What we know:
It is a single chain. It is built from 5 helices and 26 strands. By secondary structure, the protein is mostly beta strands. The strands form 6 sheets. A 7-stranded mixed β-sheet has the order 11-12-13-14-17-16-15, with no helix packed on it. Strands 1-21-20-19-18 form a 5-stranded mixed β-sheet, covered by helices on one side. A 4-stranded antiparallel β-sheet has the order 2-26-25-24, with no helix packed on it. β7 and β8 form a beta hairpin. It is globular. The N and C termini lie far apart (53 Å). The model is unreliable at 5-26 (pLDDT under 50).
Amino acid sequence: MKKGFLVLLFFVLAISGWHGYERWQKEQQTAEHLTGSLSDIAEEVVAIPLQQPAGAAPITTARDIRKDGNDLFLISRNTLYHFDRQGKFISQVTRPEDIQVAGYVIDALRRQVIVLGNENDIHYYTYEGKLLKKKKLKSEVGERRKVMSALLYNGKIFTTEQETRQDKKQGKTILSNHVAEYDLEFTQTGERRLVAAETGRERLLPPSYGLRLGIHPDSGRLYAYAPTARPDLLLRDSLYLVNHTEETMENNAETVLAYPLRMGSRYWIASCPDPFSPGENYTFCFDSIRNEAWNLKDGFEDDFYATGKIARLAPMDAENKTYTFCQSGEAVRKAFPGQAESANVVVFIVKLKA
């Protein structure tokens, strides 16, 4: 009887495939750390103390940090600024009375920045801040459509856009998310629905406030990063994606998939403020090569410049090879004594390990 049961069990395992057991075994062996240092994932960190902008307030916050060679751009208080890679102030590209900057893309070939803001306004500037032209983004759904983020890749501009419509029968507002494709003049050339990727649990697309587009470095596929309010499930999501790569990475002509992680060639990272707990942050990182994870409530410890915990890591490029973070002048007092008096933040560029 016992021997027959063992034979039957082996037969069932053979039919279902040995891969299921391997996946289970891999999950059991995955190390998840609750503390971590930046050197665990970073090969190099470069510090850029920002100089005081001429005639403007100090740069006390910075987001959407991008570079083109020696040119560094960032948004502070809904205004776009231009520095060099040493932190020297070059120009204030936009004026708040003209446009409240929501996002921008760099057209390196033409040395211009394309800025989005206000109510779907698009302004074109030179790197030095000369306004070249401006236009209004036109959409078939008019005011019901709002641009949330943009990415320039291979000569095309991709945007995440949220559409709002009223369902009179149900008496409620319906939100839907889309990815639109434009040429550099913002003439629309295509559109796909944005849907949550399969992760083995309920497929819910979070509020679009955090949606950002990226390019998967291995496949070259366009995808969206949609931050989750459940960082405790990110290790499980990562392992599911590792074990179901073909099923979960496949876009089609009608959809773009949204994931709870930004995917690099080695590290998959999620880092954002928790929308349900203002003031709290989390950083999750999965090493897809070493099968190791960090789930950090307050972020990695900066052991390169000793500036404390890193509240948020943000990608600098579409393929998530390089990340950035900012620290206040007070946090960098030991490493950069003069920066504390200037009140300007220090920008850090993080090159991840290969």
